[in-house]
Fold each of these.
Amino acid sequence: MNDITEVRHLSPLVRNSILSQLTLLDKQCFSKKEIHSLDTITLLSKPNHQLLVSFRENDHRLLGYVMFSNRSHQALIVRLAVHPDFRRQGNARALMMAALLQLKRCHRVALQVAQDRTAAIALYESLDFVRIRELPDYYGEGKHAWFMVREG
């Protein structure tokens, strides 16, 4: 069975295991430019940032995570990643739904996504995110992104 929980609520032993896997997952899922030289663990130390992780209870294998920042009534999905072995199984949707549930009091949730990540864009649009504007060269020369927003 898979569990989704806020990383700060995990026991120290499980948390350390998850965080060590998280660094490897970042390297598998994102280019250095997509990470903007701030790894997920560094971002976690910033105010208002939360990290939800999905992992198998039996062996604590990390399936994926979503990080978001919540300020007042606005939020930003900072990063969403699912291990390649666990994609196309509903894990990204489950993580996003868990994050949106925690952000239900926010009037606006925003994110940036690389334009070539078509599966991610389809997921976000199915969750009522709308493409607001293109962000040229956001992830480096020729690597454009969409700025997407979910109101309500």
Amino acid sequence: MLDGSEDAGEISLAENIERLAMHPADQFDAFKAQADTGKGPEEIAVRFGISPAVVRRRLKLAAVSPRLLEVYRADEMDLDQLMAFAVSDDHAPSTALAAVVTHAMALTVFYGDSYGTGSCLDLRIHTPDLRSSAEGIAASPAAQALDERRAAWTRRLPQEADGLWDWLMTQTPGTLTDLMACCAAFTLTAVHKPQDRSDAPHLLHADQLAKELRLDMTQWWQPTAASYFGRISKARILEAVTEACSKGAADNLAKLKKDALATRAEGKLAGTGWLPAVLRSTALDDAAIATAEIAEAA
């Protein structure tokens, strides 16, 4: 019940809520005006004839950028997407941080701004072309998956770099994180070059990342005569056959010439899951050892 001391604006808003299904953004404006005068959710709920839970949900929109509210009012975003930006009071700064980092990365990955001139963030990233690292990489499952991901994002992003920031500011935190991860994937390289030591910092970091992600390279690469066996010595090929099969299997192939040996090794190791040491994941190796120990103890 509103008394005579209430102003005409509050009375009008209360009547509109009672008669009409007010837009949630308009409800937010109305409830925030009341909250700013010191009224709590319960009191506001009584005055407007709705539940305190609705009032609390609408007041969470105070953490959302006014620009996003404008997008929402224009029906270019739904309420669930908008609320994703209002999870907590400190969410807006973290969202802005994700947006500025993603903006700088996406400018390079998707718009060719390799010098970072389109961002105030002095973040320089490099997108290495791994196709020259080994024959057949462009046709590999991993490369094809990356190409598909790039194409999917290209369809979603603005055509011009000038529109990227405004687009990012209308996206949910989940979308920002997904795009940032995609950009990071295009900058990642763990190529072990001939001059690199096995304990080079960037290679050790690549191992740490692979372990954290539980990367299983058997899902992405198989040793073949063209991709691997034809590029290493006979002794290394026989070591691989010994590891994956048995010493007897390697001895049976030892007298073959290099080309024939590479072809036979490809057939022998097909489906075994064998990988050269540089592609093995420590986490998966540890899991395999633990499984074997459990099996032996049973």
Amino acid sequence: MANATPRGNTLLSIWNWTAVLLVSIVGFFIQLLLWLVTIFDRNRRLPGRWYRIMGYSAAAIGGSWRFSVVGPLPASPPRRAVVVSNHQSQADPFLISRLPWEMKWLGKKSLFRIPFVGWCMWLAGDIPLVRGDRGSAKGAMDLCATYLQRDMPVMIFPEGTRSRDRRLLPFKSGAFRLAIENQADVLPVAVAGTHYALPKGSWKVGRSRGVVVVGEPISTVGMTLDDVDRLSEMARTRIEELRLRAIPHSSEAGEPLPFDEPAASAQPADAQHVAAQHVDADAAAGA
């Protein structure tokens, strides 16, 4: 099992970030070629998918993170869907990228300015956002809506930032408003274990066993904007249930559950029973 405390080793961290840098540099030029040969694809599907492969490849090369997909995946790749997940760490994208479909990520605009990494995000067609800027938020949501109308899923962390203690932060309404306005499904996803991979506020990498679990889509057919809060609460409940499936397979196994008591007791099956029913699907992503 991974370290019980979210502390990283300096030399290990330097190696892991070097691996990310090397993969980003080499991968960028391949991605640029893919972008050029598919320049008329407005969804940038191939350059985007290549960037996700770069992400989980960098994590594997670094050697500190054992990331996998646990449990069943949707029978068919999501199309018009807003994918929402809890957010524990900057390592979350490396883990969620193991899911076997392309989706466009909403991310801080500052990330797009990082050499090679940010350029790759742009080539992938990801969506920049300046926090607190209404104009930027509107432009980002408009671009998300455009992707949804083209049957390209978008990936949003509804908490808006990373949790320091693994507990779910309050959800912002944007992802759920977007889903209702475009009559898109909401696909709940949960991650566990990444808190130890790269804790918020630290650049040091820790050894971690991280897993991602995917739930059933929530339909928004017939919903109006009056249902935004209800949809948000439905997604939050699903994500907490999914985390109970994920935790026994992750670095968080044996740790106190990151839920208030009512949220934890809402799940009728105990963690060991749930864990026994789910098979580790490491690399199910074609990863």
